[in-house]
Amino acid sequence: MTSYREFTVIIERDEDGYYVATVAELPGCHTQARTLEELMERVREAIQLYLETVGMPEIEVRKVRVRV
Q1: Distance between CA 53 and CA 32 in Å, rounded?
Q2: 11 vs 23: CA distance, rounded Å
């Protein structure tokens, strides 16, 4: 059985033009990138690594969706 979880990702731009993403429900889980496309991949990876670190590797992050 596949388990789905949703996370709120806050995306901002820093003073150097990078996109910065913070996952609201996962303290300390954040990443940055030059493009939004690259940021989405990095967010997926950051969430997966976070879940593995806290002992939840069975949850696989397959995709990141953006809702505005």
Answers
A1: 20
A2: 9
pLDDT digits (tens, 9 = 90+) for 53-67: 998 877 777 777 766
CATH architecture of 9-53: 2-Layer Sandwich (3.30)
Tokens 């940021």 correspond to what residue?
Answer: 39
Q: Helical H runs in 1-68?
A: 36-53
Give me the amino acid identity at 68: V
Q: How is the chain split into domains, by residue range? A: 9-53
**36/46 Cα distance (integer angstroms):** 15
CA–CA distance, 32 with 15 (Å, rounded to integer): 12
**What is the pTM assigned to this prediction?**
0.81
Can you read off the two tokens belonging to residue 66?
């953006």
